[in-house]
Amino acid sequence: MTLGPMHREIERFTKSAHHLDAVSAYASLSLRECISNALSWQPTWLKLLFLARGGLARLMRLEHPSSRPSRSLRPEEISFHPGDRLAFFTVSAGKEDAFLVLTAEDTHLVGHLIVEVDPTDTGTEHRFRIITAVHYRRWTGLLYYNIIRPFHHIVMHRMIAAASRPVEPVR
Question: Which partner from 81, 83, 132, 165 sits 20 to 30 angstroms from 92, CA to CA?
Fold first, then answer.
C-alpha cells in the first residue's frame, strides 16, 4: 500500500509492516487538538468492542491492555516525548506540529498508531492522517488481527471524524 509522502521520521515504523492503512481528514485544528480528540473519543459501542477484545485476548492467552482513558484528554496533556504513556499506548516518537507515533506491544504483535499533519494551501486548514502499522511477531498476531480487522476499519474512520471536529471550549 502506498500512503503518499509522509514525514521521514515515521518511515521506520511503517517500513516492512505486515498491515498498513491510513485515514485522513481536513480540519482547522492543531495536532495536539486532533490527537486529544482521537484519544478521548469513546462512544459506548467502542467500549463494548474493547470488552469483546478482552475476551478474545484471554481466549488467545494474549495480554489485554486497559481500555481507553476514562476521561477526555486535553490538548496540553498530549506528550511528544518517547517513553511517556497516552492511554494504553507508549509514545515512540514525536515532533510538535508534525507527527506523533504511539505504540502498543503484545507478545503476538506490535501496533503503531501514527498521527501526522500537513499544512494545506489555505493556511488555516491542515490535512490530518492517522496511520496504522502492524508488525506480527508470531502466527497468533496474524490470526488476532484478521479477526479484529473489520472492526478496525470502522473504528479508524470514525476516529478520524471525531479527531477532526472543532474543539469544544473548556467552561
Answer: 165
Burial 33-56 (b: 16+ CB within 10 A, else e): bbbbbbbbbbeeebeebbeebeee
Task: Name the residue ranges covered by the structural domains of the chain.
Answer: 26-163
pTM given for the model:
0.87
- Helices (H) and strands (E) counted in the chain, each on its own, are 4, 6
Task: Please measure the distance between the N-terminal and C-terminal CA atoms of the chain and give it in whole angstroms.
Answer: 43
pLDDT in tens, the chain (171 residues): 445 555 778 999 999 999 999 999 999 999 999 999 999 888 889 889 888 888 888 888 777 555 455 568 899 999 999 999 988 899 999 999 899 999 999 889 999 999 999 877 777 789 999 999 999 999 999 999 999 999 999 999 999 999 988 766 554
Please state, in angstroms and as integers, the Cα–Cα distance from residue 107 to each residue in 65, 66, 115, 136, 139, following that order.
12, 16, 24, 9, 11
